Every structure is written in C-alpha cells, then in structure tokens.
Amino acid sequence: MSAIDRAGLIRALPYARRYARALTGSQAQGDAVVADALRLVVAAEAILEAAPHTSPRALLYAAIGDAVREADASDQPDSAGMSLRQRMLLLLTALEEQPLTAAAAACRIDAAVAEQELRTARDGLRTGVTARVLIIEDEPIIALDIQELVERCGHSVVGIAATEAEAVAIAKAERPGLVLADINLGAGGDGASAVARILRDLTAPVIFVTAYPERLLTGEAVEPAFIITKPFDPTTLAVATYQAVTRGVRPV
Fold first, then answer.
1. pTM over 0.70
2. Diameter of the chain by CA atoms?
3. What domains appear along the chain, each with residue ranges and CATH number?
4. What is the pLDDT of residues 163-202, one digit of tens each?
C-alpha cells in the first residue's frame, strides 16, 4: 500500500472497532482509540512507505495497539495476571482470526516471542476467572453447545433463555455476572432489546453472538463492546468471556 487506501481503511473499520472495544472493554473507549489510530495511519506516510504491502486492517490493528500501550505504559497485568500484550495476542488470533505472524507484527514483537506469549496466555485463560452466565439463544441445540463451552471455560450457567421475556426474568432472578446473547431470537423477540432491558438494573458485561458482526460495528449508535461471530471456535468464546469478565464494563 504505497498510498493511503481510504476505501480499504473504511472496510477495515468494523474489525478495528471490534478489536479496540474488546481490548478496552467499552464501546466509547474503543471507538475513541480507533479514531486516534485512523488519524495516525492517515498521517503516517513513513509507515506506508516502510510497509507498502501491509493491509489497511493490519495497519489499524498496529496503530490501535500503539495507542492503547501509550495510554497504559506500565502494562500492569489485569486482575487475573495477564499482560496487555498477551491479551492483544489472544484477541488478534482468536477474535480477529489473524495468523500469528500478523498478530506479532501488530504487537511490534518477533513471531517467536509472540508464540511463547500466546502459549502462556492460553494456559492462563481459566486461572481465577469465573462468572455466572446467562445465555440468550433460541435454538436449543446451539444453546446447549454454548453452555458446554461456557462451562468448559470454568464458568457456571445460571439460565438459558429462548425469548426476550425469559431473558429479562432470569436476569432479574439470578443477577448474572455475564450475559451471552444471540441477536436474532426469531419469534421470541430481539436479543439486543432483551439486553437493553436487563442492563437497566444490572451492571454486567455482555457478549453478543451474531452471524453479521459488521451490522453492530458502525460506530453510529449505542453498540456492544464484545462481539463474536457465528460460527465460532471454542477458543474464541474462551477469549471473549475472559476479556469480558476481567476487562468488561457496562456498555455506554
């Protein structure tokens, strides 16, 4: 990319927003980081000349990492002992499905170092991180699969809701520490609406599951901080739940 690929940057924005939101734990903070990263990429002609074949998406991932590291220069471990760099590698490889070499480049480290850091991070995913989880999913088989994956991550499931009304009722009764919600509940209503109602009197991180993540990543409205794409790998769910529990905040 010898010149700024503005169209490519626009296409990459939903993915950059997903990464930054998950990394910071909120829509507002994540979108602010993306805005700063976008300005850096557009202004940094030297970067474009030094890496002419780097994709716009990769450039944004790297700029997001730079911005977050600058804001958190101490790189103190999170509440479960994982470093910022390790969380970045987990999110890039699992949530964003980037190859290890690309994730290493975005973190400004050697691939061999990234491989070791990623191995350590994966080993620590379950360490001291547990939550009581509400699953909102109208397909029974999918709901049971998600329950199995969630429990395999060390969490407990307090209820499975197939409709908006069920979700609100279970949340009121059980007060979950994490909500995992499908967007489309068919005849049972809307997952996003259920979450909005739940969050009126409950502060808990939310992970949305959808086959169309770009529809929730426009940056134009109140949107979720954590989004994973259907179908998803078990590691992706493990990373998302870890990040939501350790870094998640109520969407703003």
1. yes
2. 57
3. 6-123 (1.20.140.160), 132-247 (3.40.50.2300)
4. 999 999 999 999 999 999 998 888 878 888 899 999 998 9
